[in-house]
Design a protein that fits this description.
The protein is of the alpha/beta class. 48% of the residues lie in helices and 18% in strands. It contains ten helices and ten strands.
């Protein structure tokens, strides 16, 4: 099956979420999103109102807010407040970092309650639960995926992009083997090139978190190829 460059662009969340990300970089990202047809732009909380302003007249580009980013260690009350504030500020989707430390401590009941509370606060916006797969054992990945599903997440997202390594094809394959068709998968962090994205699509990922430079390179390559086999 071949998918078009436009379809690839719609499935990409451009990200501008580094500590040093500034207004000029967000302006560049939003301009590229409009030009190339990227589906989503992801920013830190302080820049949501400005991003919303830049996107006036372009409802086709959705804004992604990031709750408890990048550590996931905030209290549930803080996460809920953030989700509600981001929803009020005009976000279209919410990405929430799971409490990795609690998960690795075996505190699964607490982690699930935390995720459930954020999903409820964000409703009706879709929530992607970021599991930071780079730090987890296969057993912990399974637990995190099941928690995300029970909490009502729309996606399991592999990582923040802040970890010591990026997402691999093996990561996506593992998540898919656990979740099946019960929830969608977003691969994020370290995705480079059309071939890598296509391989992850075949493995089950349907959304991709990618930085601006790599996103443009992927879409321009797909345009030159007349689409990508997946």
């Amino acid at each position: 099956m071949k998918i078009t460059a436009q379809e690839i662009a719609r499935r990409i969340d451009l990200s501008c979420v580094r500590t040093t990300s500034n207004k000029a970089e967000i302006e560049e990202m939003v301009s590229a999103a409009i030009r190339y047809g990227f589906g989503q732009v992801s920013v830190l909380e302080c820049f949501i109102p400005y991003t919303k302003q830049l996107l006036q007249g372009h409802p086709e580009v959705r804004i992604v807010g990031n709750v408890s980013f990048p550590s996931g260690s905030d209290s549930t009350a803080v996460k809920v407040f953030q989700a509600e504030a981001m929803k009020a500020a005009g976000c279209d989707e919410i990405d929430m970092v799971i409490n990795v430390g609690m998960l690795r401590s075996g505190m699964l009941t607490e982690v699930e309650a935390d995720a459930r509370a954020v999903v409820a606060a964000a409703r009706p916006l879709p929530v992607k639960v970021i599991i930071e797969i780079m730090y987890l054992t296969p057993e912990e990945v399974r637990a995190a995926c099941e928690i995300a599903i029970r909490a009502g997440a729309a996606f399991v997202k592999t990582g923040t992009g802040w970890a010591s390594r990026g997402t691999t094809l093996e990561d996506v394959t593992l998540v898919k083997s656990i979740v099946g068709d019960r929830v969608q998968i977003k691969a994020s962090g370290g995705i480079r090139g059309v071939d890598g994205l296509a391989a992850m699509y075949r493995a089950g990922a349907r959304r991709f978190g990618i930085n601006l430079k790599s996103g443009i390179e992927i879409v321009e390559t797909a345009l030159a190829l007349g689409g990508v086999e997946v």
